[in-house]
Amino acid sequence: MLRRCLVRAALAAFAAVALLSSRGALAAAPAHEVLTDSTVIERWTMANGLRVVTRSIRGAEGVAVTLAYRYGRRNDPATRPGLAQVVGHLAFTAPAGELPGRTLEDLDSQRPYGWSFPVMQSSTLLTEVASLQQFPGVLAEVARRMRGVTVDAASLKRAVEQVRAELKAEVDGPRELVMGALIRDVALGRSAAASQRRTSGRGLDGLTIAEVRATMSSYLQPGNAVLCLVGDFNRVEVRRPVESLFGGIPAGPALPPPPPADSMHASARVFTSAGVRAIGIGLLAPPLDDTLHAAYFMTVSLAGSMADQIAKSSGQEDKPRFQYALFDEPELGRLYPDLPSDSAAIERAGEAVSVLMAPLADMTIPKRSFDVVRDRLAYLMGGPMPPGLRQSLRANPRLMITASRGIAACELLHGPEFWAAYRTELMETNADEVRAILPRVLDPAYQVRVAVLSGAGGAKGARGSR
């Protein structure tokens, strides 16, 4: 369950020199767009404010349906860490009208092509992949859940228990989950005590049905959502059923602007733990709307691709070396080098970054590998499919989850116009720009270094800050 909810998106990006001016006026995204790979994107907004985007991929054997809300962990009140995760669980699994509640095991059986419902920092992405035969029924279920789920004492108790388990896993779970959370906390300047309060689950004590219902009615509504569908819409009808099923859902209240991302700073901190021992490095990025950010994204993604190959060759494919959530947390990339967890770990962390980035300094990476990585990144933000991916989608419909979530996030966060401009900059990125930003990536003034050593648990100390 926890591994399904990990945020493991593309890997990414940074800039090298002083910030340039932000992007100027952006062209409006077309309502109908035929890409060079022959896939077709359609966009429209319904009267209740729900934005809809579809991508038709000829030959796709399934349909991925993502209902994305601009609501995530950054919306949690200071006294209620974990609330957004509880809301996400309930929105995806609680009963709704005539629909019964469902467990994660039920979902494995009902949606063999795949499903996911990560509650991220800025968004909640509820995704189900249906077969062509299932699609009409699945779309109707998604619409029924958007109208409102039934929150009772039993369903709330189950959701709180699941979220407490997820929060606990940020202390003693998989390495990338533990270190990812610690790197974020250190970058935000949170104390060890504050981190422990957040992961203890105590913020969910006394959570009431009324609180959850009020939160859902405010945020889980058409005006704060995007519906994304990816499949072969030459074989199944989409627009008419979407209009019929979702058009009558009442528009929700006007919402204030989303909370801004908190300021992050370079730092170094050592923790002790009786469980996980690991090293993690956060790479602080400039603002996403900086025109050099695409070059940073390309640089760290290339490094991540090399790290993946190293992990694969050593039989450790299940241990991510890089993580970067471009759409959700673009201000912070993460690196997890395999280093001894001892008192010198913090100092060696910088050397590990330098070693990994060394092939980028002289660009010994073949041009074809450079282009393959760039094309895959562009696809994540609505660009043409790389060669061979269409056949992979036919063989493995689960891959459509990535496409659907990526398109939904682009529409929800910043909008398609922004990402079209960003994609253009990415496709124009060359080897010289990659080399130019390496000093920034390697500079300790833009790194967050965290080590977890053996011990009783807690913060051992902290040093260094930007």
UniProtKB/TrEMBL annotation:
The keyword Signal applies. Keywords: Signal. InterPro entries: Metalloenz_LuxS/M16 (IPR011249), Peptidase_M16_C (IPR007863). GO terms for molecular function: metal ion binding. Residues 207-292 form the Peptidase M16 C-terminal domain. The keyword Lipid metabolism does not apply. Residues 1-27 form the signal peptide. It holds the Pfam family Peptidase_M16_C. This is Insulinase family protein.
